[in-house]
Specification:
The complex is a heterodimer of chains A (about 525) and B (about 300).
Chain A: H1 2-28, E1 41-44, H2 61-70, E2 75-77, E3 83-85, E4 88-93, E5 98-103, H3 117-128, H4 146-149, E6 164-168, E7 171-175, H5 183-186, H6 198-201, H7 203-208, E8 216-222, E9 226-231, E10 245-249, H8 254-263, E11 268-269, H9 280-284, E12 288-301, H10 313-321, H11 325-330, E13 337-339, H12 363-372, E14 380-386, H13 392-406, E15 409-415, H14 418-426, E16 433-439, H15 450-453, H16 467-477, H17 482-499, E17 503-514, E18 518-519, E19 535-536
Parallel strand pairs in A: 1-10, 14-15, 14-16
Antiparallel strand pairs in A: 2-3, 4-5, 5-7, 6-7, 8-9, 9-10, 11-17, 12-16, 12-17, 13-17, 18-19
Chain B: H1 2-29, H2 34-39, H3 46-56, H4 62-74, H5 88-123, H6 128-142, H7 145-159, H8 173-202, H9 206-213, H10 218-255, H11 261-270, H12 274-302
Helix pairs in contact in B: 1-12, 5-6, 5-8, 5-10, 5-12, 6-8, 7-8, 8-10, 9-10, 10-11, 10-12, 11-12
Classes of the chains: A alpha+beta (about 525), B mainly alpha (about 300).
GO biological process, one term (chain A): peptide transport
Protein name (chain A): Peptide ABC transporter substrate-binding protein
Keywords (chain A): Signal
């Protein structure tokens, strides 16, 4: 029994230790906020931002929601995609190359510091500098002197971009490397936000506790659970908060968030999950939101692959006509998408009705076009997608539709997750087509063409290259005015149909909702809910 | 006894190094680059990607990275997350107590209710209550935990409204009850069945007859003579189950929105945050090792014939 006794003692000690850790864990949770927020605050299911909250280091939607509430750029867009000036009085140009920005006076950061030309120029120089590794630094590449602060290799040659000059405290000029008639539209992206002086003391700490100039002031960040911001009384922009504050609450699944909206623990949900889609309009009543926004889904052929190398565009047009977009969006996608009619979604400047039947289901003509074009090599191809994003169902349906209509064999090429999918695209390992997607960065049609199908475009993973189209796009960029440029890009879009750099499938729609406690929930052009305008009942 | 424990503890070192290296290699072998994945679908700048990788040491060969990681670990540094730039120890400290709480809740539930049900059924085999237990456990074993999770969530939270559908505050024991029961249900069925069989079998053994013949009170016959011998397989199972419960919490944590280690490791895996995965996995390895040591020591408590030299 001696052995048994000492073993008892050891086991007892371990049990006590385990219990102690459990107690320790328990007490640290005390005092945290319960389900509903402070009175007058609204809550939304925005999850943990991937990165620290620095405007130029965020381009995923969770982070940009929070950044948009804390920072305000020079300008913003209304629901039609037109410019609304926020921090800027005006942004003007005579030659589309040198732009003059006039700031509104009296704007302050949340710590009381005034927003001046310097707040913008210093911030942009810092963002663009390669040493700071900012994810969105390439947004500044049109500015003269960008290559000095962001060389392809090695250390930067300068600390500042020569294209940025302060005229006085509230006026500064931006000189570009080339003409770009829609440059002012780019300025609406969250990346162009100004920074207060306190940022440069410790950017790392700032990223956890940002000080902005936006409608809301940072309150707290309880990692993976909640970010809380408070309406800022001194804000002077048109998008002044109509509620007292916002709680961005992290949810692990769309279903969990949806349940909380229905039961009243959460005010707004950005997207209803597939399982709840069939009943969310009944559940939420007036609170159900269904609206299109400026984003598109495409099938993009890899023009370096065996299958699609030197393919006749007629084959791609044929494949496009073999896809029954109407039925697939209605059944498989539960009406969450609108069939595409072109390369540019509605809601952006220059959206047009292309006079073509390439995007209409027509099995007979599809077969004929594919035959005329010489057919798909091997009579089969694959569509690459990532299985972690809910794409499997529609890829299968699209393949089925193509097979039925034309007899061309089509199969999905699943990758386990987005990271793997991206790697295959970057390394030119896509075997056939891949699923492409694009959300508007700024609401101008150029964003859906120049950034995707120009030979030198970073996101041109299909490696589409056509000298004529490149030339037309360059010419459109050189246009004197925005209208001319938009019109020129409309011509480019018409040309794209002849070359088919991708097969547009459908435009996105937001299927979200809100509970009974809030009102005035609107959607902006890139599909985000406008949190500042939401009122509590 | 002391030497035995010391030997076991020393054995843990190679196991720990081996398993972390293995996980490290597996993360390395996965396709997908964490820095690139962070940039997403839209346009990005390859120069920035290269620059970030260099800063994090991700451009070095695998063994060098592993060596760096282990060096850091010995100094108590779990590393930094690539995207959020938070120390991984902070991330673990946020999530670990939540899962630990959930697991302990589930474990206590399994132990008390599982053994209790098993004893009740095992003492009277082939009666109505025994058959009832067998049916109930069959039901629990065959039911996937996400089905049970959704079912209970629907019943309790939406129909009867006795609890919140998701856990809004993971420090609140009452909110954790439902997820803990769902998490426990599968093990509960195993434990109940194991106890029941073991008890039913030992009821017929010689020492039981002897004990009864000696005229010992029933309480002592069952409590000491029968229970001690019958619990050996159950304790083995329970020991291993602590680890499984912690890792098995992924599904349950998802359904009930519990911000624990399961979700953390899932997130880290899809984002290729190698250091986070290895950090959490190493902790899991330690827990498994500790649990199996406790189980082995408990044998001696239950059966005096088992000795450790």
């Amino acid at each position: 029994m001696r052995g048994a006794k000492s073993a008892k003692w050891v086991a007892g000690a371990i049990v006590v230790a385990l219990a102690a850790t459990a107690c320790g864990g328990d007490s640290d949770g005390e005092g945290k906020s319960k389900g509903s927020g402070p009175a007058g605050y609204v809550s939304i299911d925005v999850g943990e931002p991937q990165k620290p909250l620095i405007p130029a280091d965020t381009n995923e939607s969770n982070g940009s929601y929070v950044i948009q509430s804390l920072f305000t750029q020079l300008l913003d867009f209304d629901s039609k995609g037109d410019i609304v000036y926020t921090n800027a009085e005006s942004v003007t140009t005579d030659d589309s190359k040198t732009w003059t920005v006039k700031l509104k006076k009296g704007w302050k950061f949340h710590n009381g510091e005034e927003v001046t030309s310097k707040s913008y120029i210093d911030a942009w120089n810092w963002y663009a500098n390669i040493k700071n590794n900012q994810q969105n630094s390439f947004w500044f590449q049109d500015i003269k002197g960008y290559d000095d602060v962001h060389p392809e290799k090695g250390d930067p040659k300068a600390e500042t971009m020569s294209g940025l000059k302060a005229v006085d405290d509230h006026t500064f000029t931006i000189e570009l490397k080339y003409t770009m008639p829609y440059f002012n539209y780019k300025l609406g992206y969250t990346t162009w936000a100004p920074l207060p002086k306190v940022f440069y003391d410790d950017p790392k700490a700032f990223g956890q506790k940002p000080v902005g100039n936006g409608p809301y002031k940072f309150e707290k960040w309880d990692h993976k659970k909640l970010i809380q911001v408070k309406a800022w009384d001194e804000y002077q922009g048109p998008n002044k908060a109509k509620n007292k504050g916002v709680q961005f609450k992290a949810y692990t699944t769309l279903e969990a968030a949806y349940k909380d909206v229905v039961s009243g623990n959460l005010d707004m949900i950005r997207q209803v999950g597939p399982t709840d889609l069939p009943k969310y309009k009944q559940d939420l009543g007036d609170g159900a939101i269904e609206q299109p926004y400026a984003a598109i889904q495409t099938l993009t052929p890899a023009f370096y692959s065996k299958t699609f190398k030197d393919i006749d565009p007629k084959v791609l047009q044929g494949l496009s006509m073999a896809i029954d977009r109407d039925t697939i969006t209605k059944t498989v996608l539960n009406n969450t998408r609108t069939p595409a009619k072109g390369f540019t979604p509605p809601g952006v400047k220059g959206y047009q009705n292309l006079d073509t039947d390439v995007f209409t289901y027509n099995p007979a003509k599809a077969k004929q076009l594919i035959k005329e074009g010489g057919g798909v090599p091997g009579n089969k191809f694959t569509i690459q997608y990532n299985t972690d994003g809910g794409h499997k169902e529609w890829v299968t349906a699209v393949c089925e539709s193509i097979r039925k209509a034309t007899g061309v064999d089509c199969t999905g090429d699943p990758k386990p997750d987005f990271a793997t999918d991206l790697e295959a695209r970057d390394n030119d390992q896509v075997k056939g087509m891949y699923r492409g997607g694009w959300v508007a960065d700024y609401p101008v049609n150029a964003n859906f063409m120049k950034e995707l199908y120009h030979t030198t475009a970073e996101a041109n993973n299909g490696k589409f290259s056509n000298k004529e189209i490149d030339g037309l796009m360059n010419k459109a960029d050189n246009a004197k005015s925005l209208d001319e440029s938009v019109k020129a890009f409309q011509e480019v879009e018409k040309k794209l149909v002849e070359h088919m750099p991708a097969i547009p499938l459908w435009y996105y729609r937001i299927n979200g909702g809100h509970g009974k406690n809030v009102d005035n929930v609107n959607v902006d052009f890139h599909g985000d809910l406008e949190v500042w305008a939401v009122t509590t009942k | 006894m002391g030497r035995y424990v010391a030997r076991r503890l020393l054995q843990m070192i190679p196991v720990f190094i081996g398993s972390t290296l293995l996980i490290f290699c597996m993360m390395y072998a996965l396709p997908g680059d964490p820095v690139r994945a962070m940039m997403g679908d839209q346009a990005y700048d390859p120069t920035v990607v290269a620059s970030i990788k260099k800063e994090l040491g991700l451009d070095q060969p695998l063994l060098q990275q592993y060596a760096n990681y282990m060096m850091g670990l010995f100094q108590g540094d779990f590393g930094t997350q690539i995207a959020s730039q938070r120390p991984i120890s902070d991330v673990i400290l946020d999530a670990f107590p939540v899962t630990l709480r959930l697991t302990l809740f589930a474990f206590t539930f399994v132990t008390l209710v599982g053994i209790g049900l098993g004893v009740v059924a095992g003492l009277r085999p082939d009666t109505l209550q025994d058959r009832g237990l067998l049916t109930l456990t069959l039901f629990l074993v065959s039911m996937p935990s996400f089905v049970l999770g959704f079912l209970l969530q629907y019943q309790f939270a939406f129909k009867w409204q006795v609890t919140t559908p998701t856990v809004t505050d993971s420090a609140d024991w009452s909110q954790l009850a439902l997820p803990a029961i769902v998490l426990a249900s599968l093990s509960l069925a195993y434990v109940a069945r194991l106890t029941r069989t073991s008890i039913a079998e030992n009821l017929r053994s010689d020492y039981m007859r002897t004990a009864v013949a000696k005229g010992l009170p029933r309480r002592r016959v069952i409590g000491v003579h029968l229970m001690r011998n019958s619990l050996i397989p159950v304790v083995t199972f329970l020991g291993i189950e602590i680890g499984s419960l912690m890792t098995g919490a992924i599904v349950t944590e998802g359904i009930f929105n519990v911000r624990g280690i399961g979700l953390e490791i899932y997130d880290a895996l899809t984002r290729r945050e190698g250091a986070t995965v290895v950090g959490i996995a190493s902790l899991m390895v330690l827990i498994y090792l500790a649990a199996s040591l406790i189980v082995d020591l408990l044998y001696a408590v239950l059966d005096p014939r088992i000795r450790y030299a």
